Amino acid sequence: MIQLAWRFLRFQKDSALAQWFQKRTEDGRGGTRKTMIVAVARRLLIALWRMATMGEIPQGVSLRVTA
Length: 67
Description:
This protein is mainly alpha-helical. The chain has helices at about 1-10, 15-25, 30-55. The mean pLDDT is about 90.
């Protein structure tokens, strides 16, 4: 989940979750980023669960349509 959270932050920069992470880690300390990525992973897991069970897409996430 931690690796998925880092990837999510890299590729979904406009999402509410990525903006939340950026806002919380503005101080630039490494310890803060390590702690907050765990929080992002937990929030991402909840968001993915909601998307799978209820069809609720997380705010600001862009999905790619495949043919």
